[in-house]
Amino acid sequence: MRNSRLLFFVSFLSLAGCGAGGDFSDLQAYMDEVRSRPEGSIEPLPVFQPYESFTYSAAALRSPFQPPIKIDVVNRQKGSQEIKPDETRVKQFLEDFNIEVFEMVGTLANDHGVFALVSGAGGVHRVKVGDYLGRNHGRILVIDESKVDVIEIVPDGEGGWLERPRSLSLKERS
To answer: What PROSITE patterns does the entry give (predicted)?
Structure first.
């Protein structure tokens, strides 16, 4: 019991010493400044600086970190003025997608002919010889059990057009 009274007395003295003799002049000066401000005054909002968007326009150019590619202009394939896409025909649904998104997944055959099943553009589509596929005016030429042969018409960069063969190979089960 004596130890507890001694402990109580020591803790009382230590707490009593915390509040005695403190210098609060800096706190008093701040409170005086706050009280001297006129009532109802609010600082104005900061001026809004609108975001200026930036469009990166060099995405199609060669990377400055890659060595330049030497193009042999003499041996480069030239386009023809006779080859050009038919701009008057109605575009088919699968022409809105890049040909790289398509994979051949199978074939179907019936009395009307042979059809290829291509996966891509949100589903599996049935196509036949003569249908168009891809954004570069790709026309299906041949369908066999292992691949679909497509011929694309692409610009040569000098006002002419080139025919570029492409193939969609059958995708095996993974």
So the answer is: PROKAR_LIPOPROTEIN (PS51257)
**114-173 confidence digits (pLDDT tens):** 999 999 888 999 999 999 999 999 999 999 999 999 999 988 877 788 888 999 999 877
Give the chain's domain count. 1
Q: Report the distance separating Cα 133 and Cα 135, nearest Å.
A: 7
Residue 156 lies in a domain: yes
Q: Name every residue whose Cβ is closer than 8 Å to that of residue 98 and which is 6 or more positions away in sequence.
A: 134, 135
Of the candidates 93, 99, 169, the one whose C-alpha atom is nearest the C-alpha of residue 125 is: 93
Maximum Cα–Cα distance across the chain? 115
Q: Identify whether the C-beta of residue 102 lies closer than 8 Å to the C-beta of residue 133.
A: yes
In a domain? residue 9 = no
Question: Does residue 151 belong to any structural domain of this protein?
Answer: yes
Backbone CA torsion sign across 91, 92, 93, 95: negative
